[in-house]
Amino acid sequence: xxxxxxxxxxxxxxxxxxxxxxxxxxxxxxxxxxxxxxxxxxxxxxxxxxxxxxxxxxxxxxxxxxxxxxxxxxxxxxxxxxxxxxxxxxxxxxxxxxxxxxxxxxxxxxxxxxxxxxxxxxxxxxxxxxxxxxxxxxxxxxxxxxxxxxxxxxxxxxxxx
Length: 161
Prior knowledge:
About 20% of the residues lie in helices and about 35% in strands. The chain is of the alpha+beta class. It has one domain: 2,3-Dihydroxybiphenyl 1,2-Dioxygenase, domain 1, CATH 3.10.180. Strands 1, 2, 3, 4, 5, 6, 7, 8 and 9 form a nine-stranded mixed sheet that branches. The longest helix has 13 residues, at about 5-20.
């Protein structure tokens, strides 16, 4: 059984690729200070990471920015445009069960200068915290699900980056 990207992820990917990344200052109705928020990337499943990476490099000029795990065969790679503003996560599509009780792969990654504050705002609006993968003294990496169960990641770079 092959998993397909959700309609939301597909729609966001199309909008993202055609319009480019945009930034927006988020301010809640509570009047709390604004936070910088920008679309970082969209994650999609692919049948073969090497083939997909070659395609996106040749067609869009994207270059590898990271791989996970850092050593060995990657299960996920990040691609970015050298000029910035566009990111794509490619994950190896298999028929194996997904980790952490996930029902599908694909996520929207959102950068923020206050990921925890943005997560609190999202939870107050009905989102659910899925996991906090933030390493000590590293970036803030939070996974949440929206009202319809679509997963999104809030990412805050470590201090000084």
